[in-house]
Design goal:
There is one protein chain. The protein has 151 residues and is an alpha/beta fold. It folds into 2 domains: 1-33; 34-150, Ribonuclease H-like superfamily/Ribonuclease H (Nucleotidyltransferase, domain 5), CATH 3.30.420.10. 40% of the residues lie in helices and 23% in strands. Strands 3-2-1-4-5 form a 5-stranded mixed sheet, covered by helices on one side. Strand 2 (64-72) and strand 3 form a beta hairpin.
Length: 151
Amino acid sequence: MLYLQKQLNMPHYRTVWKMGHKIRQAMTQRDGIYSLKGTVEADEIFIGGKQSMKTFLEEGSNKTPFLISVEEGKKASPRFVSFEELETVYEEHVLPAIQKKVDKGSTIKSDGAGAYVKAKEKGYKHKRSVSLFTTLMGASMKDIKTIFEEF
């Protein structure tokens, strides 16, 4: 929010915070209106802070799994992106997230994990892709992490 405050040259942080909060609410409501269709590239990602190996071994991971899905537009360029928080990265949680965000009949491009292959049984086509998120045209997961850090 400090970055936004500086860019908008606004003196009061509280005003910028409220504005940012309203933008996030509008984006969340908009996400509920549309679903992804056509060719959709999907994978699981983990988002969370740094953690020492000792803490990981003692307490488990502090990272949250998400399903990230990108709808391909013309010339395989990204059209829409969707993030869905997952309880686990196993098919019992990945498949419902796909069904919630992706229209039936769409083609799911993925790494070939079991959950995506089983999406065929739910009315989706599946295409195995070795290089995931080619639709982001050079954007790395580091870029996506930066987006999350802004919000």
